[in-house]
Amino acid sequence: MTHGDLSKLLLQLLAETAEAFIVEPTSELDATIDRSLASIGGLFDVDRAYVFSLTRHPGFASNTHEWCAPGVEPQIHQLQHVSEVSIGWLMGEMRSGRAINLESLLDLPAGADAERAHLSSQGIQSLLVLPLVRRGQLEGFAGFDHIRGCRRWSDQEVAVLSIVVSGFAQGFERRLIDQQLRQLAYEDPLTRLPNRSLLSQRLGEELERARRNGTHLAVGYLDLDNFKPINDSHGHAVGDELLVAVAERLCRCLRPGDTVGRLGGDEFVVILPGLSSLAELDSLGERLLSAVAQPTLLGETLCVALSTSIGFRLVPPDDADPDTLLRQADQAMYAAKRAGPGRMHHFDVELERRQSLQRSRLERVRQAIEEQQLRLFVQPVIDLATGQLRFAEALVRWQHPQQGLLLPEAWLGWIEDQPEISLLGDWVLEQALRHCAAWMRAGLGAAVSVNMSAWELRDPGFAERIRAALALHPDLPASALRLEVLETAALEDLEQVAQNIARCRELGVSFALDDFGTGYSSLTYLRRLPISTIKIDRSFVARMLVDPADRAIVKAVVDLAHAFGRTCVAEGVETPEHLQALRAMGCELAQGFAIARPMPAEDLPGWHLPPSAGG
């Protein structure tokens, strides 16, 4: 081969190698190195070409890649964990950045007896060894052996192969960076467990495998019960150490093929494929509970005890997806936590159906508010002595686009004790104040009464909400607003409710206790709640003319209200006879069909008391 031909081949080798290490993905790095070794071996007629790594086990070199010419026996399996001591002279030369070009083993210096024995055992007669350097550190080396003869490598050949080997080093660097990026993307940095992204990916893979094999799969969602107090009391370093200890325990008690990952904070997830029964899942759950519950020694003196709540979702793989399974296991975990620390709970499909229906209903109510499908109705409340309009109770109706006008009984229960009740409350309050201001401008001096939910009454910011709502109508005195409190709602948090009422009364707002007699009706509550009016529940008023007991109750409530300095409103007044009886008892105010049916708020200025309801 002429010098020109050799140069051309060397340039071709450089071009092919450079392109491979730039273009090929790092997942193909090993195959790319194998192809490069084969190309070098064929081009330079060597017997064996190989790469060693020094990074797998400190102090040892391991053969990671090898190409052998036909008829040459591979050595890769015998050349694992080779002590650096046995090739000390070679290591010293390479750490000094020098290539080792030996035409014969006789060229080894006198102090390289270990190398001479090591290389001779492999039948090597001559070799070229090039250091593989990354970031200034010797990470390994590439070697090219002749077994069936001797060879002296030219400076040009050594220079070209040094460039090729540096490409190996760059490939290893790219792979390391890719691995680090993958760790950042898929690994929890504290515990080294899979993070949410990798858990979701593995869960999808296990679901697909379960579909193919017809097996069951479970997802477990774990939340440590008392981690936060420990973390707050002893600091984040102790908390992190505890999380690592928990992660190690969870890994130890699972089966081969199971996966445990950390979502963040003190939440972990386990993926349990190939389950045969619910009993097997329960057994695994008990092992997880027991593993976490073992006392943990942190440092030399601190011993802490933990427990965990676990929610499980066991499914056949059909119609399941990772996000849904994680959400369902999370819901089951909260059910376990409500039952007490150190419990596990299985996801309830029927509960999910009910919760899904509830979510749909809540969304429909939110949509009704946003799309202005609600209508404000009012019902007049009159002074029984004079027949004059004193105030109007605000009532809400839903003008459903398909079902027509819906009374609150058909949908209000959907949002009780839900945040949406506050959205509705804000809407009703604003509409009531707006219409009340319009009534006053029209010369109708009626106040407006608005019902408040238990959810709103327990809100520490309730009084501020009322103040802000009144501020939007500066021409409307605060005394024009009355707020009605259900007796049962007031009892749920008497202290907070009493504080909120007192703050609103300072603004000038008055309060009524609604449906009196249907709750506990304790005199203590009457004394502690700063209310001005008691409303007698319609259930007593409706039968007072035919049932002496109900009549006695109505009279007793009227007398009780007067004894406490409160006025009394009778609800559900349906006939003139009811009106006469209530006047005789001394009841001051009344509302009901005998006076007026609920009407659109804008119709109130045109309303007149019917003659049959007059005194």
From TrEMBL:
Gene3D superfamilies: 3.30.450.40, 3.30.70.270, EAL domain. It comes from the Bacteria. PROSITE patterns: EAL, GGDEF. InterPro entries: Cyclic-di-GMP_PDE-like (IPR050706), EAL_dom (IPR001633), EAL_sf (IPR035919), GAF (IPR003018), GAF-like_dom_sf (IPR029016), GGDEF_dom (IPR000160), Nucleotide_cyclase (IPR029787), Rev_trsase/Diguanyl_cyclase (IPR043128). SMART domains: EAL (SM00052), GAF (SM00065), GGDEF (SM00267). Residues 215-349 form the GGDEF domain. Pfam families: EAL, GAF, GGDEF. Residues 358-612 form the EAL domain. This is Diguanylate cyclase (GGDEF) domain-containing protein. It comes from Cyanobium gracile (strain ATCC 27147 / PCC 6307). The lineage of its organism: Bacteria, Bacillati, Cyanobacteriota, Cyanophyceae, Synechococcales.
